[in-house]
Amino acid sequence: MRLFSILCLLLLSLGVASRPRSRSRSWEKKVKESSVGAGVTPRSEDFAFNLYRALASEAPGQNVVFSPLSVTMSLGMLSLGTGSHTKTQILEGLGLSLQQGQEDKFHKGFQQLLERFSQLRDDLQLSLGSALFADPAVHIWDSFLSAMKTLYMADTFSTSFGNPEMAKKKINDYVAKQTKGKIVDLIKDLDSTHIMVLVNYIFFRAKWETAFSAKNTQQKDFYITPKKTIQVPMMNREDEYYYILDQSISCTVVRVPYQGNATALFILPSEGRMQQVESGLNGRVLKNWLNTGTKSRFRLYLPKFSIEGTYQLEKILPKLGIRDAFTSHADLSGITNHANIKLSEMVHTSLVEVDESGTRAAAATGELFTFRSAQPMTVEIKFDRPFLFAIVEGLNLLFLGKVTYP
């Protein structure tokens, strides 16, 4: 099989307000080459991990998967059309400094990122984009449409929401096409009170730098809990990997590179320490994992998995301080002159598939971040209990998740 990809999608729907340490030189070179457009928000990784914790707390003991880049980009586009407290909440929620010029730098960062993604080589498929579907009866400010197209390269479509079924089909067909058929029927319900839908998608497909052999894959026990096991197809391969023992939050990290400028990080908490690891995740930890480690030879056991997550972010983001956009206090005056609209729904769907050939989908240190590189004490590292993963391109965190049930 070909190595596969990871898919992710974000949708925003607006309705009327009355509607209820040893560093790899080659890796450093790759990161340097991809620095244009990277780190589009100063603390966007911290937002990503805050969002992860919020999503995980909503579904304890379940799989989690989402695209921090897609969510951040969608909120960035939304902020173009907001004012007053609504804009402040979004930017502060994303960890963006409100000092003069920072907002413009944030949007320009996405513009550069999109331009770079459009020029990626064939060994890494990565597409990121957006579309705005707006009812022709609603006047959208030219300035907003221009900013969407210039900064975020967004497609725009005139869509009559007076015929909700036709509008739903038009939007879902667009999403299915952009995600190579991986995400279908994103929108379940539309009605005539909706006037606008903003969609953001990300599609990722990459092959492992060195593939796992399918003939080595065997059914093995996966310990969902110490007393509950299931049988899973477990891949394994002996090779040299970058290995990190992070004693500050009690976990082991293995970096597995893709062809092209991307890598997967698989994070295995020490026995009984999942909560400690989840609580300790932040942007500095991620950067240390990407730039620190000892290359060691061992046999890696990793389950094949396919996980999907759908989240109603209008219920999650208020916990991170982004509230007004979903209430009658929403200030969307930068989008339209209609005063009585709000963001009624924000749906995010992600799909990640990992197999022998690859994945489909769509350094600051301090007292709390003391790392120590170490050789593995055994010749095997087995991901045979719940673990976390991150997929990174350059410095951009594309996907983040937890595998509890492979």
From TrEMBL:
<dbReference type="GO" id="GO:0070684">
    <property type="term" value="P:seminal clot liquefaction"/>
</dbReference>
<dbReference type="GO" id="GO:0036027">
    <property type="term" value="C:protein C inhibitor-PLAU complex"/>
</dbReference>
<dbReference type="GO" id="GO:0097182">
    <property type="term" value="C:protein C inhibitor-coagulation factor Xa complex"/>
</dbReference>
<dbReference type="InterPro" id="IPR042178">
    <property type="entry name" value="Serpin_sf_1"/>
</dbReference>
<dbReference type="GO" id="GO:0036025">
    <property type="term" value="C:protein C inhibitor-TMPRSS11E complex"/>
</dbReference>
<protein>
    <submittedName>
        <fullName>Plasma serine protease inhibitor isoform X2</fullName>
    </submittedName>
</protein>
<dbReference type="GO" id="GO:0097183">
    <property type="term" value="C:protein C inhibitor-coagulation factor XI complex"/>
</dbReference>
<dbReference type="GO" id="GO:0032190">
    <property type="term" value="F:acrosin binding"/>
</dbReference>
<dbReference type="GO" id="GO:0070062">
    <property type="term" value="C:extracellular exosome"/>
</dbReference>
<dbReference type="InterPro" id="IPR036186">
    <property type="entry name" value="Serpin_sf"/>
</dbReference>
<dbReference type="GO" id="GO:0004867">
    <property type="term" value="F:serine-type endopeptidase inhibitor activity"/>
</dbReference>
<feature type="domain" description="Serpin">
    <location>
        <begin position="49"/>
        <end position="406"/>
    </location>
</feature>
<keyword id="KW-0722">Serine protease inhibitor</keyword>
<dbReference type="GO" id="GO:0097181">
    <property type="term" value="C:protein C inhibitor-coagulation factor V complex"/>
</dbReference>
<feature type="signal peptide">
    <location>
        <begin position="1"/>
        <end position="18"/>
    </location>
</feature>
<dbReference type="GO" id="GO:0002020">
    <property type="term" value="F:protease binding"/>
</dbReference>
<dbReference type="InterPro" id="IPR023796">
    <property type="entry name" value="Serpin_dom"/>
</dbReference>
<dbReference type="GO" id="GO:0002080">
    <property type="term" value="C:acrosomal membrane"/>
</dbReference>
<dbReference type="Pfam" id="PF00079">
    <property type="entry name" value="Serpin"/>
</dbReference>
<dbReference type="GO" id="GO:0007283">
    <property type="term" value="P:spermatogenesis"/>
</dbReference>
<dbReference type="InterPro" id="IPR023795">
    <property type="entry name" value="Serpin_CS"/>
</dbReference>
<dbReference type="GO" id="GO:0036026">
    <property type="term" value="C:protein C inhibitor-PLAT complex"/>
</dbReference>
<dbReference type="GO" id="GO:0031210">
    <property type="term" value="F:phosphatidylcholine binding"/>
</dbReference>
<dbReference type="GO" id="GO:0036028">
    <property type="term" value="C:protein C inhibitor-thrombin complex"/>
</dbReference>
<keyword id="KW-0646">Protease inhibitor</keyword>
<dbReference type="GO" id="GO:0036029">
    <property type="term" value="C:protein C inhibitor-KLK3 complex"/>
</dbReference>
<dbReference type="GO" id="GO:0031094">
    <property type="term" value="C:platelet dense tubular network"/>
</dbReference>
<dbReference type="GO" id="GO:0001972">
    <property type="term" value="F:retinoic acid binding"/>
</dbReference>
<dbReference type="InterPro" id="IPR042185">
    <property type="entry name" value="Serpin_sf_2"/>
</dbReference>
<comment type="similarity">
    <text>Belongs to the serpin family.</text>
</comment>
<dbReference type="GO" id="GO:0036024">
    <property type="term" value="C:protein C inhibitor-TMPRSS7 complex"/>
</dbReference>
<keyword id="KW-0732">Signal</keyword>
<dbReference type="InterPro" id="IPR000215">
    <property type="entry name" value="Serpin_fam"/>
</dbReference>
<dbReference type="GO" id="GO:0036030">
    <property type="term" value="C:protein C inhibitor-plasma kallikrein complex"/>
</dbReference>
<dbReference type="GO" id="GO:0009897">
    <property type="term" value="C:external side of plasma membrane"/>
</dbReference>
<dbReference type="GO" id="GO:0031091">
    <property type="term" value="C:platelet alpha granule"/>
</dbReference>
